[in-house]
Amino acid sequence: MTVTPGAAGLLAVAGFLGGAINAAAGGGTLVTFPALLHVGLSPLSANVTNTVGLVPGYLGGVLGHQRRTESLPEVGQRPLALTAIAGAVVGVVLLLTTPEKLFGHVAPYLVLIAVVLLLAQKRILAALRSRGHNGGRRWVLAATFAGGMYGAYFGAALGVLVLALLSIASRAEFALANAVKTLLAFVINAIAALAYAVFAPVAWWHALVIAVASTAGGYLGGSVARRIPVLVLRLVTAALGLVAFVTLVR
């Protein structure tokens, strides 16, 4: 399926903004996914095309965060990456074997759960720690697996969900969790993109436009994220998640 000049322009702007937002706060898919729907793709095709197109943008975000992408206190990068890959494989299988109608019904509520987790993370964490929870390897790995499964099934607000889960499961400061989130999002999307390139209806020209634009946006967003106050990152992330829910539930 070819892309018209007007559609290419729209997707280029959306891809740049999506890459920057994914790196800075998470939720950039909320820009690119609606744009793909607007230019005529079906929900399933838009979802898988979006996943393929945003992989370079996530890589740009990793490069922009390279000075902050360290290990969490509870577990190193390799176990995190392997767990994210396992979750992504499960998510891919779910998307390719379940009806598209079910996908449309479930997606907005997964986004809403992520927003609630993010907004309530301080209270949840305080409650857990009052009962003796101080983070832990199993908590972090479980959160990473869940994020991988969600992200491969439906990428919208992946950063919101992964960041919320890591912030609750780990003792890491928010800025470090945000940097690790960017790395995990890249791993998850890369695995999903490889599978969808073979088995799903990817609109390749659309994906190419988003890929080029999101790479530049991802690198810029990753660099800027280190200078943004933590409170602003949290509020922006939550706001993007709420926008996603309202958009998808219509």
Structural write-up:
The protein is mostly helical. It has eleven helices and no strands. The protein is globular. The mean pLDDT is 81.
Low-confidence stretches: none
Mean pLDDT: 81
Number of domains: 1
Classify the beta-strand content into a percent band.
Answer: under 5%
Q: What portion of residues is helical?
A: over 70%
What structural class results from the helix and strand content? mainly alpha
What is the 3D shape?
globular
Q: The biggest beta sheet, please?
A: none
- Helix/strand order, N-terminal first: HHHHHHHHHHH
Distance between the termini: 27 Å
Q: What is the CA-atom radius of gyration, in angstroms? A: 17 Å
Number of beta strands = 0
Number of helical stretches of at least 4 residues: 11
Properties at a glance:
250 residues, 11 helices, globular
Tell me the layout of helices and strands:
Elements: H1 5-24, H2 29-38, H3 43-64, H4 77-97, H5 100-119, H6 121-130, H7 137-153, H8 158-169, H9 174-199, H10 204-225, H11 230-249
Helix pairs in contact: 1-2, 1-3, 1-10, 2-3, 3-9, 3-10, 4-7, 4-9, 5-8, 5-11, 6-8, 7-8, 7-9, 8-9
